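Example 3.2
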Amino acid sequence: MSFISNDGLNLFDPGAIDIETSAFNEKIEKELSAIRPLYTHEPQVIRDARDAGFSVFGPIKHLDDIEDRVISGLDTDVPLRVYTPEQVAGVYLHIHGGGFMLNRASYYDELLVNTGNACNVAVISVDYRKAPENPYPDGLNDCETAALWLVENCGSEFGTEKMMIGGESAGANLSVTTLLRMRDRHGFRGFCGAVLNYGAYDLTLTPSARRWGERNLILTTKLIEWFHEQYASAEKYSDPDLSPLYADLAELPPALFTIGTLDPLIDDSMFMHMRWLAAGNRSQLAVYPGGIHAFNAFPIELARKANAKINEFINAQVLKTPEG
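Structure, written as tokens:
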């Protein structure tokens, strides 16, 4: 593992950040400094504004090629958003981010279609229940339900047994905890890869998150703490079912951890990458100079590079033979 770029710069050196990324970060920070912090609003107010397209992420684009499905869970039905390309070599179970309390699966239509077409995978995004109305373990239960449904129906529904899982931010946390539940509760170890983008793996806060402060590049320390407070009570934070950094990580699939150097959660990805390896699994860590939280959701070259790497990883895992 090397943190030296092709031009010889340390990836954490400010000089490694390209001009476009620097300008973009300055724009985001200026926009967010001009509005009230998210944690000063009621969750539903934030959701309504996001539905209307009022956020730094811009308008929501719903695509017609996506199918809405509903599956039965233990205590509630779970909505899914499904995209199936013409050729299907595998299935990617996507768990979206949003601090365990924001966003919907339908916000990710473009991601589903782009990933599906680039990798010849059907993409299923889980519309899990959100905190604070539905705190832990409700959302995670829904993700477990979706994973169980996929394991039982993947072959008949999509004509393949190749399954991957992944997500971003809180969705990366839920992806890992779902993998652990599938292993420990159901004896299933058949996912062939995990796409883990800038996840929060320690709700007690890693040093980078704790020390970040209030510089607003999507996340601040106080905002991260607020998200966690809505999701679960503090005495539970070190439970591996909430903070998978503390879990036994043996027998998990190959993973790609994607993170930017200006993300407060950078320690989460770096620590989890090393623990993934130490548990005997395969892991890749992709670090992007100047990348902020959720940087790959924006139309910049750094995002295109990261998303190309993610698609390359998905393709490699789906096409790999069981012995490979």
